[in-house]
Write a structure and sequence with these properties.
Layout: E1 6-18, E2 21-33, E3 36-46, E4 49-58, E5 65-76, H1 77-83, H2 85-90, E6 97-110, E7 123-135, H3 141-149, E8 164-170, E9 173-183, E10 186-195, E11 199-209, H4 215-222, H5 226-231, E12 234-244, E13 248-252, H6 254-327
Antiparallel strand pairs: 1-2, 2-3, 3-4, 4-5, 5-6, 6-7, 7-8, 8-9, 9-10, 10-11, 11-12, 12-13
GO biological process, one term: regulation of protein targeting to membrane
InterPro entries: AsmA-related
GO cellular component, one term: plasma membrane
Length: about 325
């Protein structure tokens, strides 16, 4: 860009084509000065929604650079993510989602010779909300594999409507802050990282009600005391996802988590049996004391009765002697 340019444009255009994308109803202020383009209050209709942005593009250095703040309103997810490599790199999972997107994006980086972003230089953050969404797990090898690995989950039935997510990215790597989900009565949280090179490392945490773990578990819990049973409502289960989006690996701790739960149940059952044994012993000792007490009372009563009888006998005996002496 020539350094001598010093121009202010209040732009308005019905159609603008940029990188094979048709922008409609474009308007805003464009300032060209000191080898830098400043964009202010730019608005355009695209991908079934609206994008507003402010930013700068500079050609001062050896490489052209840019910095943007974007507001995306009700964009069609399928159209926007299939057309914009930048969005596709930040959130590749979007190819499995149908619906709309609201988002704010702060981003900066280098531009290539064709003035498109160099993905490996991008730095920024994205906050997004999904609207009127439908998930097509069959479009993702990762979600399809997760379905196979986790028996209590059907990813096609996950409700993503109004779901929000926070992404930050730097040096070709995207960090996803843990996102809470809900499937039936199962609480889910997913977070982790992936690279623009399609590598990934994610963790999915499930809080699973015990009823999903099979009849052997539920039957064992039913044998516990009501108090102990009420303490065991859910167990934590973790799925670790790594590899790449094209060749994912998933491991879970479902077996070990279930085994640990069964061990806990067995220990509680053992403790209950010990407590029952102690109660039985106490009852038995209590009965023995009562019997001993009754026996003692009986002996005491017998002794008292003997004493009374003896007194009567002595009285009668001495009484008769007194009567005999009087007569004599």
């Amino acid at each position: 860009m020539p350094a001598f340019l010093d121009i202010i444009l209040n732009a308005k255009a019905n159609n603008v084509v940029y990188d094979n994308i048709n922008l409609k109803e474009v308007k805003g202020t464009v300032t060209l000065k000191d080898e830098t383009v400043n964009l202010k209050n730019l608005q355009t209709n695209v991908f079934g929604g609206n994008i507003g942005f402010d930013g700068t593009v500079s050609t001062k250095g050896k490489k052209a650079t840019f910095s943007m703040d974007l507001n995306l309103n009700e964009l069609n997810i399928t159209e926007s993510f299939s057309s914009l490599e930048m969005l596709k790199a930040i959130a590749p999972i979007a190819k499995t989602i149908e619906g709309q997107l609201n988002s704010t994006i702060t981003i900066s980086g280098d531009l290539k010779n064709d003035m498109t972003p160099d993905l490996n230089t991008l730095t920024g953050k994205l906050f997004g909300q999904l609207l009127n969404t439908k998930l097509k797990a069959s479009n993702s090898k990762t979600l399809s594999l997760l379905n196979n690995k986790v028996s209590f989950l059907d990813t096609d039935k996950l409700n993503l409507d109004k779901l929000t997510g926070y992404f930050s990215f730097k040096d070709g790597e995207v960090t996803v802050k843990p996102i809470p989900l809900k499937y039936k009565d199962i609480a889910i949280e997913i977070g982790g990282k992936h690279g623009f090179d399609k590598s990934m490392n994610y963790e999915v945490n499930f809080d699973v009600p015990v009823k999903y773990l099979g009849s052997s578990v539920t039957e064992a819990i039913q044998k516990l005391t009501p108090k102990d049973a009420s303490d065991i409502k859910t167990i934590p289960v973790t799925a670790n996802i790594d590899g790449s989006f094209s060749s994912p690996n998933i491991s879970t701790n479902i077996k070990s988590a279930t085994a640990n739960l069964m061990n806990t149940i067995i220990e509680k059952q053992k403790q209950n049996l010990k407590n029952q044994g102690k109660d039985k012993l106490k009852d038995l000792l209590g009965l023995t004391k009562k019997k001993d007490s009754a026996k003692t009372d009986s002996v005491k009563k017998t002794k008292d009765l003997v004493k009374d009888k003896a007194k009567d006998v002595l009285k009668n005996l001495f009484g008769r002697k007194k009567d005999t002496s009087k007569k004599n």
